[in-house]
Amino acid sequence: MSKQEMDALAKERLVDIAREWYGQMCDGLVPFIRLPTRTKQNIEYDDENEVWKYGERESTRSATSEKSAVHLLKMAYVIGFLKQQLTENRSSTLRELYYISEGWKRAKFAAQDESNLLVEDLEILTDMQREAFHLRPEEDGASIFGPLRLRESTRRGVREIHCQEDVGEAGYPIPNNVDAIEFLGHDARFVIAVETGGMYARLMENGFDEEYRAILVHLKGQPARSTRRVLRRLNESLGLPVVVFTDGDPWSYRIYASVAYGSIKSAHMSELLATPQAQFVGVQPSDISDYNLPADRLTEQDINALRAELTDPRFATDYWRHQINLQLEMKLKSEQQAFASRGLDFVTKEYLPTRLAEMGVI
Amino acid sequence: MVVAEELAKQQRSISVAEFFEKNKHLLGFDSPTRGVITTVKEAVDNALDACEEAGVLPDIFVAIRRVDSDVFRITVEDNGPGIVPENVPYVFGKLLYGSRFHQIRQSRGQQGIGISAAVLYAQLTTGTPAVVVSRTGAKGPAHRFELMIRTETNEPDILAHEEIDWDRMHGTRIEIQFRSTFAAKKRLLDYLRYTAIVNPHARITADIDGEVTIFERVSGEVPPCPKAIHPHPHGIEFGSLKRIAAGSTQTLGEFLVSNFSRVGKKTADEIIGIAQLKPTRKVRALDAEDLKRLLDAMQRVKIPAPPAQQCLSPIGEDLICRGLEKEIQLDFIKARTRPSTVFSGHSFIIEAAIGYGGRLPAEGSALILRFANRVPLLYQQGACAITNCISEVNWKNYGLGQQGLPVGPVLIMVHVASTNVPFTSESKDAIASIPEIEREIVLVLQELGRELKTYLSRRARRKQQDDRARAICSIIPEIAAKVSEIVELPPIDTSPIEGRIMRKLVAKKQTTEGRVRIDVHNYTAQELAFTLYNLSSDEAKDAEPRPDFVDALDGEYNKVWRCRLAPGAAWQVTYSGTGGGTLDLRGVDDAVKVVVDLDV
């Protein structure tokens, strides 16, 4: 689909929402929208796509209370703004959208969160991604380092880049619009997504990418949509296995879950963002005892987060139940850089080769 | 032997004045700040009691003036019946001198300690005498006394006595000076405000170092003065029985009937029968053993409760509400007066009120107002049976939060009226925990709790309706405007949605570009007549249609239109102006109307 067609479709679908309300009001009805309930209780496993998506539960938002009516009013303003933006072929960030709303009087957003949620609602209603509305996320994408050649169409022309030879120490930064990237070729056996910058640099310094023909992807904490889309495409179009290497605490497991199964917030586009085949490397709670890693005690919040994960359908596997219960027993957590206690080479010479072989990746 | 003789030289009787000089705290003079409040309280209590007895509407003046850096002069003046000159020195200069101690009826003061204790406290801290002026009627002059108390003997010491001219026809004025601070100013005003609440027939004027506050009366009727009754057989103790018996010349049968309340010939015979005494015996001749049997028999016979209507003077539900509303702005108020009951032969009545919203602070514990015989209790809230009962009630059942006491914008007032209020101590700060009283308090609070719950749920429902009305009448038109713009189609008229959902008389005010527009739609099935009030700073000279009349007050204009609308019909007025102000519809039931101010 060409860019023009894409823009026209996005505009059409947005205006359709307004058209629906127009019809409702002409019929003497209070305008309303229907959306899936966006909670942990309403995500279901989609066998076909192997990802977690929203289930059947829907909530109706009808303008019969002041709060709901204002929500619809805000949505109408956002639709009006996006329509204009698409018409004029401009783009803006989510943060800019928040500031633009300053002039909308009663439809003004109270917080950035609110505008983000509303845009996600629009994604669900139109079955399109926010990039199609020319909305850019604020968060910068993470970076790639490894034996991969790609082509990126930028505003200033087309660039061909090799992610080891043509980039600096920081690697190749993933752009917001992943659709602008085309993979040209690679010499990799697998992709390893790493949570922290320290470990990403360690693997690079130790030459892990060359020795094991690995593509390193830095997640930068909870991964941005663009990062997740790149992982998915590396897995899907190049057929490379993806493994995720994080800290050993409940928050890091959620990072893995959002890569592998999709996040609760964006479950409406899990099939675009999630990589169901992604495997978890560690740090596993069992590693803490097996390798006698330096560890911290779990805080009250950590324990609550682990307990919450036990009821999260995305963690409802024997492997996770075992690991989470083990951690609750030990009451300990370790960072991935804790492997340094056994020497700087330990992680690349011992831990990862052993663990990846065990997982059948190498 | 020698030691005993040595000791005997030191052994002597102690005057009651000396005793209280050493034990000031027992009477509420434990600190200089509290001394001010206790003094005012004792003087005001006396003034109210005296006015009630004389059937006069009380007009009380309280003044506190700083005369030296830490010396204050407290003046309390009333328009009561006055005190005859011969008695003035005793009333103010002798402890335990009073008229109400031997009477069984509801009154504020009882023992005759309070005001003379204040005089004692004054001479202790500043050495100055109390100045008393009293006049008993227009015919006689006023008498002015300067008084002190001789502590060794508890007798008054008259330093000066003269006849003077006084502008009051009758009444009493007392001036006392003592060392204190102004720390208790707020408490003192609270005390006077609470006193005004439970004495809605009194006007109290307070002048605190030049700052004048007037607590106006809401009722022009003097409450009937409670009449003294005879002791109830169930409430008498051995000592008092012996004392009255010794002073009587009657036979046992006559004695029981004429000295006790609710005892007739039949009951007397029953008591005498159980006591196995002869009805013809002279009571004076009964020995201790006989009296014990008699007392025991009196407890065993079933006797109706004492006549509470005579000896008690409850405030009444209506006056409690009016008193509270006058001093504290509230959204909801309900009061209850329970029927009279008895504990140990003493009659009592519990009255209570619950208030919600208004100016009450939204956070924190409820405001608790405790009263005993129309006197506010300010200290030792935690030790009081009233507070315990309030904590005992499960307020969560009635829609309030609770942390011990209920929390939120709530006021709880409890009044215990009794011929003998059981205080925990002589300073009369807290009511003792008596099961009969506690039971009555809990019952009345539960009754009021149910009333509050009904109010709160009705309020929640109304809030939801308001919320809905705002959504329908104000935001949907905005959505419609925006949506029409997006889809590039003609604007939608949203009034059918309004009509279908609201089914009410809907008034809307909106100001755009210097034009104020008021729309009224009758979405009901009836023809409605109503009056529209629009108060704002706009004079609306060009209003079309013209208002039926305009009231100008303080730069604001209240514009009034009288209209009549058929079912489904609409009415509109526009004028030049800046909007704002208020809009009100009157003449139609609250349930049928919706007023939406789009300028807010």
Instruction: Give helix and strand order of chain A, one letter per element, not per position.
Output: HEEEEHEHHEEEEEEEHHEHEHHEHEHHEH
How much β-strand is present in the residues of chain A? 15-25%
- The figure for the number of domains of chain A is 2
* Domain module count of chain B: 4
Strand order of the largest sheet of chain B: 5-4-3-6-2-1-7-8
Unreliable residue stretches of chain B: none
Give your account of this protein's structure.
The complex is a heterodimer of chains A (362) and B (600). Chain A has 362 residues and is an alpha/beta fold. Chain A has 2 domains: 3-136, Orthogonal Bundle (Arc Repressor Mutant, subunit A); 169-176 and 183-358, 3-Layer(aba) Sandwich (Dna Topoisomerase Vi A Subunit, Chain: A, domain 2), CATH 3.40.1360.10. Chain A is built from 13 helices and 17 strands. Chain A has a 6-stranded mixed β-sheet with strand order 10-7-13-12-14-15, sandwiched between helices. In chain A, strand 8 and strand 9 (157-162) form a beta hairpin. In chain A, helix 1 (3-26) packs antiparallel against helix 2 and helix 11 (300-310) packs antiparallel against helix 12. The relative contact order of chain A is 0.10. The mean pLDDT of chain A is 89. Chain B has 600 residues and is of the alpha+beta class. Chain B has 4 domains: 16-215, Heat Shock Protein 90 (2-Layer Sandwich), CATH 3.30.565.10; 233-300, Helicase, Ruva Protein, domain 3 (Orthogonal Bundle), CATH 1.10.8.50; 318-456, Ribosomal Protein S5, domain 2, CATH 3.30.230; 495-597, Sandwich (Immunoglobulin-like), CATH 2.60.40.2960. Chain B has helices at residues 2-10, 16-22, 32-54, 88-93, 114-125, 185-198, 238-246, 252-259, 265-275, 288-300, 308-311, 317-327, 385-392, 435-487, 495-502; strands spanning 59-68, 71-78, 130-135, 142-150, 155-164, 171-179, 203-208, 211-215, 332-337, 341-343, 346-356, 367-372, 375-377, 401-403, 405-407, 410-418, 505-512, 515-522, 528-536, 549-553, 556-565, 570-576, 582-586, 593-597. In chain B, helix 3 (32-54) packs parallel to helix 6 (185-198), helix 8 packs across helix 9 and helix 13 packs across helix 14 (435-487). Chains A and B meet through helix 1 and helix 2 of A and helix 14 and helix 15 of B.
